[in-house]
Design brief:
Length: 383
């Protein structure tokens, strides 16, 4: 749903200019230093990018899902690390509180997340529990007006920067699966919470992940999301539905950027006396990529509109994530090919993007997990 086309166009033009004039020129520096310059983070705050998806009542821009994916298409034309900086505050690091939090929890945390004053992180994955997230073993034991958390979370995006963590932990050891899990807001600085060293990753330098350890970590009972035990896994899944749609939009925008670069290269680069863009085998790679990007864009917009209409889009979000992330990988591969040897050395952005986009098929549910979600829903409705 687009509430006001004119206002949205101004926002999209502002983001487009910010990407072209500020983010793209800093991409190599971010890759070299593994850090987003503070000036860029400050500009992101001023533009309201930390609160795109948070309601105006809490200081956010209150974008609808359709508006948000349109912004994401634009933002994703720069290195994914920039998007990741604001990604958790808009997505997995805030939505649990927004969707299922108590009015007090929303009032306390959402304005600070929307302004970018603090960074939010989402801590579900553990060393022994990834795709099988419901088997998590981090425990939360009630002790008076506190819970005591013990366990380790793995690969937590923005953990080194985070001011708060949405943490899924088992409050009822007698219930092995999802039903025993609750969600907590845990503040950085809580006694017993520590963040491990920054992971060395294949790509997306400038975006950080790390382990988060809970060692008799005391969390006020008032920080139990929604004030109810046993519903934390459902909260996490609702957060991921939305996140998967957002990531699908990011895959689509990133694929567009790679294709734009490859097209420019194909037009400039000459072999056999003519631009390589004149060769039909190169044209096939360009055309296949353009077609697949269009398909992903159409899927993402359709699912976003349905979500704005109040539909349950769990299956559509998985379809989008599966198609858009795999598509993005295929486009990256073709774009390296179009660049030839230049695509394999790091002078061109495509070498970096090729590594950066590999993650899209893994996090927020691997491609195989999306296939399971889709197929299980099909089988359920047939039986
Ligand atoms: C850079 C990065 C950032 C991340 N950020 C976060 C974050 O902020 N918060 C968070 O909680 N997590 C985060 N994650 C974790 C991420 O969501 C998991 O890595 C992902 O869900 C896969 O879990 P796993 O790594 O344990 O792989 P596994 O679950 O061990 O899977 C390994 C392989 O087995 C396949 N597989 C597993 N089960 C099945 C099955 N039933 N059927 C078929 N195939 C299957 C998988 O598809 C995969 O190919 C991040 C990960 C990375 C790498």
């Amino acid at each position: 749903m687009i509430r006001d086309r004119e206002t949205l166009n101004v926002l999209l033009a502002t983001v487009r200019r910010f990407v072209d004039e500020r983010l793209v020129p800093h991409e190599q520096q971010v890759a070299d230093t593994d850090a987003i310059p503070q000036a860029i983070v400050d500009e992101m705050r001023e533009l309201g990018l930390f609160g795109l998806a948070l309601p105006e009542a809490y200081g956010g821009l209150g974008l609808t899902m359709e508006e948000e994916v349109l912004v994401a298409f634009e933002l994703a034309r720069a290195s994914p690390a920039f998007r990741s900086t604001i990604g958790t505050n808009n997505g997995i690091g805030s939505q649990g509180i927004l969707i299922d939090g108590t009015p007090e929890q929303k009032q306390r945390w959402l304005p600070r997340l929307a302004s970018g004053e603090i960074v939010g992180a989402f801590a579900l994955t553990e060393p022994g529990s990834g795709s099988d997230a419901a088997s998590l073993t981090t425990s939360a034991r009630r002790d008076g007006d506190h819970y005591v958390l013990n366990g380790t979370k793995r690969f937590i995006t923005n953990a080194p920067e985070a001011g708060i963590f949405t943490v899924m932990a088992r409050t009822d050891a007698a219930i092995a699966g999802a039903g025993g899990i609750s969600a907590f807001i845990v503040e950085r600085g809580s006694p017993g919470l520590s963040v491990g060293r920054i992971d060395r990753k294949m790509g997306q330098r400038g975006s950080h992940t790390a382990d988060v350890h809970f060692d008799d970590c005391r969390v006020p009972a008032a920080n139990l999301i929604g004030g109810r035990e046993g519903v934390g896994f459902r909260t996490a899944m609702k957060v991921l539905d939305r996140g998967r749609l957002h990531i699908s939009a990011i895959c689509t925008g990133t694929a567009q950027r790679m294709l734009d670069d490859a097209l420019r290269y194909a037009v400039d680069r000459r072999q056999f006396g003519q631009p390589i863009a004149e060769f039909q085998l190169v044209q096939a790679m360009l055309a296949d990529s353009r077609t697949e990007i269009y398909a992903a864009r159409s899927m993402v917009l359709d699912a976003a509109r349905r979500r704005d209409d109040g539909d349950d889009i769990t299956v559509e979000a998985s379809c989008c994530k599966l198609f858009a992330s795999e598509m993005c990988g295929r486009v990256a591969d073709r774009c390296v090919q179009i660049h030839g040897g230049a695509g394999y050395v790091s002078d061109h952005a495509i070498e970096r993007f090729y590594r950066d986009v590999r993650l899209f098929r893994i996090y927020e549910g691997t491609s195989q997990i999306q296939q399971l979600v889709i197929a299980r829903a099909m089988i359920r409705s047939a039986s």
